[in-house]
């Protein structure tokens, strides 16, 4: 699992039929202090996340192991909305 912030939405009027009904969000990875790091990722949303929220996402074959993405051709899926995280006892992020 990786930490990221939802920075936007992706809308597609034409797509593979098996992707119908999935919402796609644009993610930017974050470091342990919540600062942007890494490339942009388009991920299927399995939990109802929104723009600005911090999320946990999985990529690769793990992305196809949620109820929403089972047997669908996705490479990344949001599977949790983060409420807070701590590093070494220090609160680094709180929703």
Helix-strand blueprint:
Layout: E1 2-10, E2 24-30, E3 36-45, E4 54-59, E5 76-81, E6 84-87, E7 90-94
Proportion in helices: under 10%
CATH superfamily: EutN/Ccml
With helices defined by DSSP (H or I, 4 residues minimum), what is the helix count? 0
Would you list the SSEs in sequence order as H and E? Answer: EEEEEEE
The radius of gyration is: 14 Å
Low-confidence stretches: none
Q: In whole angstroms, how far apart are the ends?
A: 19 Å
Largest sheet: 5 strands, mixed, barrel
* CATH top level class name: Mainly Beta
Structural class: mainly beta
Whole-number average pLDDT?
92
The total tally of domains equals: 1
What does this protein structure show overall?
- The protein has 95 residues and is mainly β.
- It has one domain (2-94): OB fold (Dihydrolipoamide Acetyltransferase, E2P).
- The protein contains no helices and seven strands.
- The protein has strands spanning 2-10, 24-30, 36-45, 54-59, 76-81, 84-87, 90-94.
- The chain has a five-stranded mixed β-barrel.
- Strand 2 and strand 3 form a beta hairpin.
- It is elongated, with a radius of gyration of 14 Å.
């Amino acid at each position: 699992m990786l930490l990221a912030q939802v920075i936007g939405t992706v809308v597609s009027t034409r797509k593979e039929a098996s992707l119908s009904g999935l919402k796609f969000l644009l993610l930017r990875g974050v470091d342990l202090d919540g600062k942007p790091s890494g490339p942009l990722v388009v991920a299927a949303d399995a939990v109802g996340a929104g723009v600005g929220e911090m999320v946990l996402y999985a990529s690769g074959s793990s992305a196809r192991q949620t109820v929403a993405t089972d047997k669908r051709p996705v490479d990344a899926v949001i599977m949790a909305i983060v409420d807070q995280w701590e590093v070494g006892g220090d609160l680094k992020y709180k929703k």
